[in-house]
């Protein structure tokens, strides 16, 4: 296999952070009693917490059913992608089976020990800032683990696909398959069933941050690590591909550093969305306090916190639809789209004049052939 060309830039801070994360991911908590890393354990607890959010509270469903819900949130999007690409379902892969067993065991311990119930009670009570802080922490873990999945399972298998939309769609399914399956299988209720998806009845549910943020992360990572100065243009205009390949251009960043950039971007998008929901939920409470309206204990804060968490990393379809219809969500989405466009523009400006002329000539030739 040919060696990857050296990147144009090196960022020491990202390189050091990658070494720390690699150590945390590779170090086992205990060689025999608990042979998993700290990051895996925290992410398993995070997924267990997400199933409780989907159901709206603990013990609404039985233990076995809740374990299956954990597996659906973990592997649902990946299974859909494999079926669409004609590949074997991941359920028969030994590594996937081991991961399913670990996450199922962690979830079972969290439920049976009462840890899940206590955490949810603390997060949904007063002060609401505790629930906000917990979600922000989980978003950090989610961003690291989810970015790995987006790149390895959503982007890389279809990176050379002739359609420029395919990598974005598959990445969105890896990162946001959970909310889509929740609406399709009615996972918020105790009795699951196949139904007309809620996001099909109300398309604003497709604006859930889990879905579009995953596509943005894949696009940014592809732009930073592609050996072409413009991977999107290369796919949209095949006539420019020979010129770009002959130029021997180098990627902007190393794949490990680009992966960290994707994780930081995803963390920022998830956290900003969570802060937006928190501020929106706090406005009615602040107005009631200013008007001297009596409050019933901390019920208003509790309800606001509960509504906020359902709009977090594992959005419920109804909440995602409500949150997605606001102007602030559209502004956030526009800002996220502007970032990869800016990266592509920066790549273009960094390219030499000969390369620019060659690309433009390739586009002209392709348009001429089409006419």
Automatic annotation (TrEMBL):
Skewed-composition ranges (Low complexity): 295-313
UniProt keywords, alphabetically: Membrane, Transmembrane, Transmembrane helix
Membrane-spanning segments: 61-83, 95-115, 331-350
Keyword Transmembrane helix on entry: yes
Residue span of region Disordered: 290-321
Name recorded for this polypeptide: Uncharacterized protein
